Amino acid sequence: MKSKVTSVLLFSFFLGLSLADACTTIIVGKQATADGSIMIARNEDTGDSTETQNMALFPARKEAGFFVGNSVSNPENNTFTMKLPPNALGYVAFPHWQSLGKKNLSFAETGINQFGVAISATETIFNSDQALKADPYLVKTGLTEDSITSVILPYAVSAKDGVKLLGRMIEQTGAGEGFGVAFSDRNEAWYLETASGHHWLAQRIPEQSVFFSANQGRFQQADFDDPMQVLSSPGLHEFAVKNRLYDPAKGSFNFFTCCVSDIKHDHTYNYPRVRELLKFFADISYSKEDGLYPVFVQPNRKLTVQDLKQALRNHYNGTAHDPYLHQNPKEPYRPISVMRTALSHITQTRTDLPSDIAVIQYIAIGMTDLSAYIPFYSGLRKVPKAYQGNRGTISGDSLFWQYRKLQALVLQDYPRLAPQVHKAIVSFEKRTTARQAEMEQSYLKLFQKSPVKAAELIQRFTDLVVAEQSYLIISLTKKLAAQSGRQGLSDKEYEQLIKETEKKYHFHGA
User: 420 and 372 share a domain?
Assistant: First the structure.
């Protein structure tokens, strides 16, 4: 009966009938970046255009607590709950609006704790029917995307520790769905993928490499005898052999062929994104349709935050598969940049700076191709109002909905309107980068004398950049509305336009 439930759940996911997230993840090791930093990044794609997120600061907590899952998008009404140990670390994260007013905020897609450990949770992936027949997801009670950040990030003291905590929870509580989770700290980055309801595999990202995932498990070979590079659930290899997922007589263990779902749908929904990133980062062309793409890739250049922005904004630019330039919502290849992205992050950890400025989350709201990335430092003490209180119905003073209005307008005539937005965003990000450099120089000079006053520089910089961003988006929206004959639209009319536009360019899938 459990396997039947799992099959039905997977089928509905692939038809796009659930609200499961459908994301793109990128991780870069320190020797593959221009400045020696480590980066984990992801477009957090949701079920529609209304799933807003907010920024929240979670204080450190000495006493024990209790987490209640909110089943924000789980079609099985998952009831996961957990007693939280004492001595929780403080952290910043981005929970979904649906958890506002509930017993606790949840569905926090990305975050950084006071130890500088960062998480990105989760990349929705799907394990194979054979693996799930042997060990099904615990869809009613298991750990899901809604809960992961809230129960792992407050206790992880390193990236590897985060992997171990999450892995232990999968083993004990079970996974309610398939997922991939990224972790980073000052020293390294790790990525974990589920194998089944209670099994998992994690690997350290090689320092000279870039790794990416597009709604499908990506791991292949794994050296289980090297715990410095590979961690897994106990008995994963034996589980694969026992359940005939893998025959040792026919070759070495391959996680992808053993435990990853690979169906016809992946060839248009996931494969094209992986191929595009292989070309973008490493000039690699992989023509086979077997899903066995290179896993850890050495890029053809030292990567920067700007490179990751460009990758996360990709929509097959300059090719026949660009759905926006060609105004073709029926394009079979699902792009990286889609309207239903709620939030995109690039979390950069620099190893040689004071903790308040060592870790930065670059956050873009909505469709990445038509959104600016704003730097938020881990030392920020107060969340800007524009990143609080955003809800699932349109509001004129919400930064999320300001972006949604602009993005919906542009998609009515992308070839004519998008270049104006791109030009404005490029100019804004260049100014912001220059201000960042100035602020950091001032911070480092002041930090030795007064860390408190130095932290105030971060707050002033952030408030200024956020205010300028809001002004820019409102001005652009008014300008483009006039150009397209839609000036004077009410919020209700805009909300309808936003929903219709996202539905048109939904790209059904995971």
Answer: no
